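ok so I'm stuck.
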Amino acid sequence: MNASHARRQHAAWSTVRRSPYVTVRTRLLTAVVLLGALTVLIAGAAAYALQMQSTDERIDRSLRRAVEVLHIVADDGPTPETAADAEFGSVEQLLNEAVRRHGLTENQGVIALLDGVPRWLTSDLVMSSIEVLHLEDDDELIELLGTVSSDAPVELRTVETTTAQYRLVAVPVTITGDPRSGLFVVAVDRSAEIARLSSTYLTYATVALGSLLVITVVAWFVVGRLLSPVRLLRDTARRITESDLSERITVSGTDDLSDLAATVNAMLDRLENAFGSQRELLDDVGHELRTPLTIVRGHLELMNPRDVEDVLAVQALALDELDRMHRLVDDLMTLATADRPDFVRLAPTDIGRLTDDVLDKARGLGERHWQITARADVVLLVDSQRITQAWLQLIANAVSVSAPGTRIRIGSELRAGRVRLWVHDQGPGVPVEEEQRIFERFHRGRADRAGRRSEGAGLGLPIVAAIAAAHRGRVRLERWPAHAGPGAVFLLDLPAVHIVHTPRVERAELVEHR
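replied:
not stuck anymore, here's the structure
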């Protein structure tokens, strides 16, 4: 069953790998084109609907004006050229005057019917070069208008025939004393107006498609240029191997993606340094552990098991080497946990009392002339155990490079919002060429004046640096003035967090205790 499940899972992964590959460039380009097309479509549809509404309103206004003109003609009466009377005496006379005096616009026509028969037509008028509508040519429309009764209401209506769609107004005309009935009709070819509007928006659609094509081409190059750091990142990531982290991304520009490329380069720098440090650490640890193992193995091979003294000597040597290996492992564990949040546990600590306690513990490290040169009587938020560990490590280094009877000074002070803890010895000092390397792992300084080398694996100062960094501080070597004699000053420089000054009585007790 497990084999079957593995085969199915392998098949699923194979399917995923064979799935179509869509690049980010294609996705962004598709989104840009779709968004542009949607914008053009919405804008065009909204503009078309508004223009359609505006066209219908314009047609209706022109038809209402035609009705008003008819009323004006009826009120004003015939002109002196057409009749001598002040009023129209017949329907025929009124319709003739109304048609003659009506001004037509493009795609508009006028016709007057007398007893259902077309009598006055658009073609009877003298027109300009505009294209007017000849209603008399549409037999269906004439037949429909012939059915309009003399008492029909005057209203705007839409009439559709096989020829066109009309928007028209039909006004029945009657005059007292004249038994005949007339019909004054003004119509607009709405289908022609809509066709003209549609032609305009067909041009708009053509221009919009051309614009989308231009946008697509421009976006293809712009998106490609914007995503070039991502492609470089992909190609660089493919070229990076476990043994070669030297590849970097070429950064050009000041945008977010260029910043991403710079950030990835910085990450690769850190990874390369971390892997280099890891390899160096493994090499150094292998060397440091191989040495005591070789010593123990060599002595065991040469040991005479029948010689009790030889056995005891080899036993003592083996235990000593095992203790050294144990210290090395402890130091490595300390450095390995230095980046953990719980590496330091901050608590209010009396720095003055801590200075005295460290001096009391340092007296057992060697026969030296011990002295406290300054004491900071403040309470700070630090990890007293880690600070004690780092301070004693600096003191142990001072003891290892100084001669018995020489002076070793320690002290603490508060200055400019920082607390400074130091160790000053009268040893040979640190050569200038080693100042930059003394805080490296497994680095051990050159022999002192007595020809001795400091004991240990070279992890003491790196541990001190890790403790200082965990307190957001640093450890450094202070250059001792030449006129003051030989020696070196190692300084722990830490931020003074949550400073609480101790009462004067406690300071007096500290002085008396000292």
